[in-house]
Amino acid sequence: MRLPQRVRRKARRPPPSSPPTPVLRTSSRSLHCLFFPGFYMPIYVKDQKLLQALIENRKRSAPYAGAFLVKDEEGTDPSIVASPDSSDNKTIDSLKGKELLKRLHEVGTLAQITSIQGDQVVLLGHRRLRITEMVEEDPLTVKVDHLKENTYNKDDDVIKATSFEVISTLREVLKTSSLWKDHVQTYIQHVGDFNYPRLADFGAAISGANKLLCQEVLEELDVDKRLKLTLELVKKDMEISKLQQAIAKAIEEKISGDQRRYLLNEQLKAIKKELGLETDDKTALSEKFRERIEAKKDKCPPHVLQVIEEELTKLQLLEASSSEFNVTRNYLDWLTVLPWGNYSNENFDVHHAQQILDEDHYGLSDVKERILEFIAVGKLRGTSQGKIICLSGPPGVGKTSIGRSIARALNRQFYRFSVGGLADVAEIKGHRRTYVGAMPGKMVQCLKSVGTANPLVLIDEIDKLGRGHSGDPASALLELLDPEQNINFLDHYLDVPIDLSKVLFVCTANVIDTIPNPLLDRMEIISIAGYITDEKMHIARDYLEKNTREACGIKPEQVEVTDAALLALIENYCREAGVRNLQKQIEKIYRKIALQLVRQGVSNEPALEAVIVTPSVEPTDGGSATIVKDEKLNDPAVKDPEEAKEPSLKETLVTEPALSTDTLSTPEGNKDTDGVKEEAADKAVKKVLIDSSNLDDFVGKPVFHAERIYEQTPVGVVMGLAWTSMGGSTLYIETTKVEEGEGKGALVMTGQLGDVMKESAQIAHTVSRAILRDKEPDNKFFADSKLHLHVPAGATPKDGPSAGCTMITSMLSLAMGKPARKDLAMTGEVTLTGRILPIGGVKEKAIAARRSSIKTIIFPAANKRDFDELADNVKEGLEVHFVDTYSEIYKLAFQNETETS
């Protein structure tokens, strides 16, 4: 900054020659401009010895020091590079003496110390200096020569022209930048236009040029050259200033354009509002909500209409920027979008429903019968009431798809949501509106999604409901499912009663034991036991195999899956109750078939255009002949080539010369006409045949093996029947003697038996001793023998009471040395008095007996009704005996065997 006039009068003129001068190093990083004569500059001195020397010089009336620029800092002298081992790597502040002297430019400025406050020293530049020699090292003190400008002619035209150009450039810069205005005004007032050396120093000092370039101006003593160097610097600054002005102008135009557009839009809105052509956002929202509810006004309940009117009034009073406005808007959006009083037209045609159910599912007659009963009641009443049906069964039996078929049969909208693992009541009944991000529960979302008030809602996995800190969802479902309560179902978010009495609820569960009793009491349970082998065969042939073949893009004539292969697949790979795994295995087979066909060169993609082919096609110089293959020509049923012709996408015909496969080629065989006949013959596609002999090539080794371990049942071994989550299975009970002696009677059990099954074994042991004492009084087998009872498949946990009668028969067989009847299987719980109690899984156990070629089955008499309700194809070929006491089983197992023998 230039020195003000009142300060200049007090500035002391330095002597023509100075005593040794302390050195002040100036860094380009800490200065916005180089220190030139005629300018003030504050610097900070960190070296305490140097600061003390400056204070003493000022007290001795010699307040002068030399200011020199460090020459090897970034931006000052890029030619200087310090070696890693040299002292140049030291910081400037730590250098002393000669090391510091080497790092300074020789030419600097003689500075008068005008004030010292703390470590800040204010300097006033007077004249140029050149270092001649060092006097002291710490603080660095040197001898200097005072430099003067070379003599010049003030009237020289070149100097005048250059100075005028410098001044003109500075004025141009003033037009684009106001930062230099005060500097230029100060120079004009205190220096004048014809002090050429000062003009050069001034221009270089206020420029934003590199400090190395400014150092060149400082070292230049020729006035003409100094002016030219300064002119270059200010010219560069002028270009930068113009560029800065252009950038600022572009940004300002953009900002002003956006502001202008915004103001015009606001004015346009105001004008349209005054003319009634447009309304504000709040009014538009209100009109939208009113239009929605107007169409439902006759069907909408009065209490809902009242709430909507209140919320619309509230919406008009709120500011659009407030959070309460968004909450009210969302609330009105949900209230007005719900299908108040809107019902779909139901179809009560029983024959139509029967047709749809048969199309979608094979078997399941009891489930279909219950659905048809529901439809029949609705037809007689003229309307249907919401019911709760719970489909219970193993995975993969089609519970979810049954719900979808029911909706299609009734012409109702279908909506499914799963509650498996659900632990938050808010998912069922919604959140309070006071919460951030609140939304209604699943039932309200369902009504919005389907658009009708009488959909069929499938609640999946209801037996897997969770329970957490957010409440008990099972209790919340009570209000949702109970026909006496859901006529006024209250969602926490909407906070208005909703009529769900017309909704048909269908729930699915794998087991009903985990469903809470109050919830289970409101459901009608329909058990789906699973599919027998015959049913799986029909499903695989009529549904799964057909759909999978189409999904893989395979034509029926390209593959054949025999019934023996499907039967082996069901028996040895897919014994579970459902057909989900069966579908996976069929998909696996067809993926491998697709790969085989592609490797043979088959492509079932339709041709994009027709090509006329003749046998005498010769390849041209640039390519080969094109032969088009028609799939129909591979069909042996086609006798006439004309029958194989089909129109292409361009409705032109493919002309084939003859039916012989010699003229055909696969997509891989389009190489050369001369070799087409031989390649086509080699690449003839063969139909893929899947039978029981090569099934393992497609699906691997069998997972299941024959359940019948013994062809001739040995002593102490009896076949029982069990129920598993995968359906029914046979279960052998084996008993043997491990130790004999008076008073040694005991029982050891193995086979991962549960507590209930262990108790059954103890009961069976007690009952067996009583029966043996009655039949053979002299036989002391149980009193003198330690028995070992084992149930094979030891890695599988087993539990339940239904093996009681089988265990008794096994023990008696060992005690009497008689084998039980070989074609007999039994199941039933036994009491200490020998009574046979009912069991579960009658259908599954009957299927398991048939699968093991067992013809004679013993069931408890209480299960006769369950067996009679089974389909005829399940009961076919079975001889079933229903018993009340074990004495009846004894006759069937042993006396009949004796007679047979």
TrEMBL record:
Residues 21-238 form the Lon N-terminal domain. One of its GO terms (molecular function) is sequence-specific DNA binding. GO terms for biological process: cellular response to oxidative stress; chaperone-mediated protein complex assembly; mitochondrion organization; oxidation-dependent protein catabolic process; protein quality control for misfolded or incompletely synthesized proteins. Keywords: ATP-binding, DNA-binding, Hydrolase, Mitochondrion, Nucleotide-binding, Protease, Serine protease. Residues 1-25, 623-677 are annotated as: Disordered. It is an enzyme of class 3 (hydrolase). The keyword DNA-binding applies. The active site is at 802, 845. It catalyses: Hydrolysis of proteins in presence of ATP. ATP binds at residues 393-400. Residues 658-668 have a biased composition (Polar residues). GO terms for cellular component: mitochondrial matrix. Its EC number is 3.4.21.53. Its main location: mitochondrion. It is found in: Mitochondrion matrix. This is Lon protease homolog, mitochondrial. It comes from Aegilops tauschii (Tausch's goatgrass).
